[in-house]
Design brief:
Shape: globular
Number of helices: 12
Number of strands: 9
Radius of gyration: 19 Å
Strand content: 5-15%
Helix content: 40-55%
Distance between the termini: 43 Å
Largest sheet: 7 strands, parallel
Order of helices and strands: EHEEHEHEHEHEHEHEHHHHH
Strand order of the largest sheet: 3-2-1-4-5-6-8
Structural class: alpha/beta
């Protein structure tokens, strides 16, 4: 039995479909059942990582845990690991981030590294999955694009290889349902690198109109556009540092791990745009 946390998010929704297609026995832990669009043959369990008392019944009888926790703290990870140990979970597949692999670790990766440490010290065998930036991050531009505004670009010549959450879910399903991955850490990205301007151009081609891109003068300007009322200082500093690091990487970090694990190339950003075209079209 596999327990899936984060089952209503971009990755969790896709993972439910992947596990169902594989005929896996699984249950999905959610706070709000109304947000669940599809459960297949899975079992829906209402619980909350903020309330450790609700985890015992969710984890009871399970042997594998897909651990995806929100936010920047470690409290959810501590609660989940404690419940997993009590339930006799024998394998954790932990969703982390490629930001955790830096040396030194950037601010955006420190809470991911802390979470990895918590799971590693639990004594439960773990497989760590570190995806790069999600293609779904482009949805942050959707309101501006629908209204005909310009997309702000904080990273200029910086390149990265975004990955489709559907591919993250497919890899996670492989790690959850097949042996041989315990103790491993996998960093996964898309196959193609893009600047922000190139991503916006791909969206523009998909919806059939021009979208302007304005490069920001400072990372702070981009942060203000995302958080007009201000972001928590720790998060703000991490985002600004992330913008600066992305701007400096004009090559773009890539791996071939998706091909290695799934035997196929990752989905392209253009394919993702086509599937999500309605998010960018004006009503």
């Amino acid at each position: 039995m596999i327990v899936v946390t984060g089952g209503t998010g971009n990755i969790g929704r896709e993972l439910v479909g992947e596990l169902d297609a594989r005929g896996a026995e699984f249950r999905v832990l959610v706070r709000d059942p109304a947000r669940v669009a599809y459960i297949g043959r899975g079992e829906l369990i209402v619980g909350d990582l903020d309330d450790p008392a609700t985890l015992a019944s969710a984890f009871d009888g399970a042997d594998t845990l897909f651990l995806l926790v929100p936010g920047i703290g470690s409290e959810h990870t501590v609660s989940a690991v404690s419940a997993a140990r009590a339930a006799g979970i024998r394998h954790i597949v932990q969703l982390s981030s490629f930001n955790a692999m830096g040396d030194p670790v950037p601010a955006m990766g420190r809470w991911h590294r802390d979470r990895e440490r918590i799971v590693a010290e639990s004594g439960i065998p773990v497989t760590v999955l570190r995806p790069g930036g999600f293609m779904t991050n482009a949805l942050a531009w959707a309101p501006t694009i629908r209204s005909g505004g310009a997309v702000l670009d904080p990273t200029g010549p910086g390149r990265y290889a975004p990955i489709d959450p559907a591919d993250i879910a497919a890899v996670a399903a492989e790690l959850l349902t097949n042996d041989g991955h315990r103790g491993m850490t996998y960093t996964i990205t898309g196959a193609q690198t893009y600047t922000v301007a190139e991503q916006v151009a791909a969206i523009a081609r998909t919806i059939g109109r021009t979208i302007e891109v304005h490069e920001t003068a400072t990372p702070q300007e981009a942060l203000l556009s995302r958080y007009p009322d201000g972001a928590p200082p720790t998060l703000a500093a991490a985002i600004i540092e992330g913008f600066e690091l992305m701007r400096a990487d004009t090559v773009g970090f890539r791996t071939d791990t998706v091909r290695h694990l799934l035997g196929r190339t990752p989905r392209t950003f253009e394919e993702w745009c086509t599937r999500n075209i309605n998010a960018f079209r004006a009503p």
